Request: fold
Amino acid sequence: MAETTHGTGGLKYDSSKRSWPNEINIFIALVIIVAIFELLGQVLPYMNGQSFLFDTNDRFDSIFNEARLQIIILQVAIIGIISLGVTQVIISGGIDLSSGPLVAATAMIVMSFAQTELVNGNPNPKAVFGPWAFDLPVLIPIIVGLAFGAFIGAINGSLIAFTRIPPFIATLGMFLICRGIAQWWTRGQPVSFPTDSYAALGAGMMPVLWFVLLAILCHVLLRYTVYGKHTYAIGSNEDAARMSGINVKRHKVMVYMIASMLAAFAAIVLSSKNLTAQSGMGLFYELYAIAMAVIGGVSLTGGRGSIIGTVLGAMVFGVIQSGFTYIKLDAYFQIMAMGAIIIGAVVLDKWRQQRSSMRI
Amino acid sequence: MSDIILETRNLTKHYGGVHALQDANFTLRKGEHVAIMGDNGAGKSTFVRQITGVEQPTRGEIHFDGKPVHFAGPLDAREAGIEAVFQTLALADDLDVSDNLFLGREKTRFDWLGPFRFLDYKAMRDDTLAALDKTGVKIPNIRNTIQNMSGGQRQCVAIARTATFHSKLTIMDEPTAALGVQETAQVENIIRTLKEQGEPLILISHNMRQVMDLVDRIVVFRRGRICANLRKEDTDGQDVVAYITGAKTQPEYEVAEAL
Reply:
């Protein structure tokens, strides 16, 4: 159905027309940023004409520098999984600061259920539990991790929904609690030597596979299900959502649970990839995850954004990080520049909102 | 089967010591359009909040469609068939027209998925177009989000909700208070369309011309009580104002006033 004549005035309704999606803007930004780094590679004297994107030394079969692309995608995949959940929380009008420490706490706990008994014929030097916890089926640590994530998310969500404290405060408290749990679990000792089946979860490009699969799942959830529609509605106008009969409290708990379970899954993939869990893991992950979402056009005031946007935001994030290394920017400046970019993204979002509200 | 759609008996609401609504006896027949008028704080909005389930009355009965009803919340009232368009529009700005029309009662598929059941966008858009057609609401593109719409269009979307769900009673609380001349005319046209279709309506308005134009009967509230029940043919603007300001009270309501 493209066009139908309607109404008393015989007005034409074009129900297939949609406004210019914001995701295209982010994609254009991504292309421009890649182009800038490509140009810098040509212009900066110390770069000797290296290419950012292309395979100039014929090291690969394709025209692209596959190694760099792989590193970019792999780098953002794990934080990307977290940002899929953070995206949903922000769209619902909240914020989740606890995801980074939650990654550490979950990794520590999960790894304790994923240890192998013998390391090169010797007993596991990092054993947390007794012999009963050695060489368990891989499903057990996964279930433990997701259950822990769901538990933390349920606390976050319940605090926010029922005590009505601001999400910022609730998840900031949980930020410290989770970091504390991570350190207390083994009194600061790392947990290492997982079973082979556990190590396979995050080996090679597996994190990217998980990221893509979960992104598709979350995209479907947000775009095509009642859960997604209500998430947008609550972030857009909570009173309207309540008046429409949506159980806002229950829904918020659900959103935070899903977000924390995604963070917990990221912890599983990360600890599997690193073959170890440490209490200091996931440093700044909560902020990077929020940054990916914001760069991807998720509005901090709620109600707006998409998973496609966040995935593009993650790519922008990865490209910038990789690009900074590529132009040999000092690591300290990299973090500072990242901060500036996050601020810039929020300012852009503000402008966008003002423009769209003036369009009446 | 009587032709009375809504009847309240001794409907009373106290907020602590404040008697916001006192013994309101109100009837509305099928197909009838009634205006509720009164000064600020006269109890109009309190009355509406009781019959739409937003608040629960202190005392009194509500009969809707022949049955006594007790609404625990707005959704109960809505499920019974009472649809209200409030002053503060209950619309989500970032969603489009059909999303807003169906918010909280989406058409879905794969219902066994519980909260993750799928939205049936096509069915909802088709119903939205049908509802807009029925009410004569003109909205250029139903995929536009609410934030890109004018005040009049927003009001129309809110009103179109009533048509979508074949509600038995529509209540509008000052639907044109914030609108310009053209937009007011548009909303008034929708109200006329509802009249032609025999949909009963309660209209709260301060606009005398509008009330005289649109409704069959005027009920005047004053200081929490009903003080007049006037057929449009038997009254005029000055007369109504006299009741609103307290210069006149109809004899049958005087007893209550004296107490």
Q: What stands out?
A: Chain A has one domain: 22-54+61-350. DSSP finds 13 helices and six strands in chain A. Chain A has a mean pLDDT of 88. Chain A touches chain B at residues 4, 6-9, 11, 13-19, 221, 224-227, 229, 232-233, 235-237, 239-241, 243-246, 251, 254, 303-304, 356-357, 359-360 (CB under 8 Å).
